[in-house]
Design brief:
Helices cover about 45% and strands about 15% of the residues. It has 14 helices and eight strands. It has an eight-stranded mixed sheet, with helices on both faces. Helix 9 links the parallel strand 6 and strand 7. Helix 1 (about 15-30) packs across helix 13. The longest helix has 16 residues, at about 165-180. The chain starts with a strand and ends in a 5-residue tail after the last helix. Bound molecules: adenosine-5'-diphosphate (ADP) and magnesium ion. Adenosine-5'-diphosphate (ADP) binds near residues 219 and 225.
Length: about 270
């Protein structure tokens, strides 16, 4: 059985979608079978990183929620988007994205009606089973909202991303408290957009002390990432860059946590 990992933040613009796309691509390139769900239904966007401009409303997470398509029909094979980018991609890897609809009417409807987290859970498990996935990432909407908190509750690992910013720190403390109330099993923090002159070890210790949760990585603010502007999956284009190396270390942690021996059988180096 694969692992469900939700990527969350209290505030927007912290780097969730970029991290989710880069982490999932890194694992798929290494030979793992990966799914990604865009549950940021209010402001979907991760599809853009995989080179998808148009999400048909008839084949999206929204359509699945309304009972108009199966979860397999909503999933797009985005592995071809990784091939030819420069990084060798293992033949045994797989990457499927379930995008959310970008149509105004669809967004308005889901914001008004909400969605059934039980259906999300069924969809995740259904896709995992259908494609024999090792990991499913859930890219969430920022902040404290019912659906996102419940998606944390159905995940084996929750990663909360924050910037080194007082507003992010305070909001993350609230999110952590709620996640703990939901008996979140494995909570990890990532600090993103740290100033290049900051001492990452000192920052990690300080955030861990303030928030009482482990920081798995401190990622620097990168001018190159700003310039790239979500123009693709960065680590596939620039694997030696500090950002890509940091993503690689997070991927190592996820593989090491729990089911590593079961997964290593599949990995082709
Ligand atoms: N480490 C980083 N350094 C510089 N820019 C970054 C970094 N991580 C993400 N970004 C940029 O921040 C913006 C928001 O990222 P995104 O992944 O969309 O955040 P979220 O999904 O949390 O709203 C994007 O323009 C992205 O390229
Ligand atoms: Mg996002």
């Amino acid at each position: 059985m694969g692992k469900v990992i939700s990527i969350h933040s209290f505030r927007g613009g912290t780097g969730k979608s970029n991290l989710t796309a880069n982490l999932s691509a890194t694992l798929a390139a290494r030979g793992y079978r990966v799914g990604v769900f865009d549950t940021d239904v209010a402001s979907p966007g991760i599809h853009v990183l995989f080179g998808i401009n148009d999400v048909p409303a008839s084949a999206s997470l929204n359509a699945y929620f309304w009972g108009n398509c199966s979860i397999q029909d909503a999933a797009v094979d985005v592995m071809p988007a990784l091939e030819g980018a420069g990084v060798p991609v293992s033949a045994s890897g797989a990457l499927y994205l379930v995008p959310a609809s970008i149509e105004t009417g669809e967004i308005a409807r889901i914001l008004h009606d909400g969605y059934d987290v039980g259906l999300l859970n069924d969809g995740i498990l259904g896709l995992m089973d259908h494609y024999d996935l090792d990991f499913v990432f859930v890219d969430t909407h920022p902040g404290v909202n019912e659906e996102t908190l419940l998606s944390i509750a159905i995940s084996e690992v929750t990663i909360i991303i924050l910037r080194p910013d007082q507003q992010d720190l305070q909001g993350t403390a609230v999110t952590i408290e709620l996640a703990r109330q939901l008996e979140c099993k494995n909570l990890q923090l990532i600090v993103n957009k740290a100033h290049r002159n900051a001492d990452h070890a000192v920052m990690k210790a300080s955030v861990e002390q303030k928030l009482g949760a482990p920081v798995i990585e401190v990622i620097a603010l990168s001018d190159d990432m700003v310039q790239f502007g979500s123009g693709g999956v960065y680590c596939m284009r620039f694997p030696d860059h500090d950002y890509s190396q940091a993503v690689g270390r997070v991927a190592d942690c996820l593989v090491a946590a729990g089911t590593a021996s079961q997964l290593s059988d599949r990995r082709v180096s």
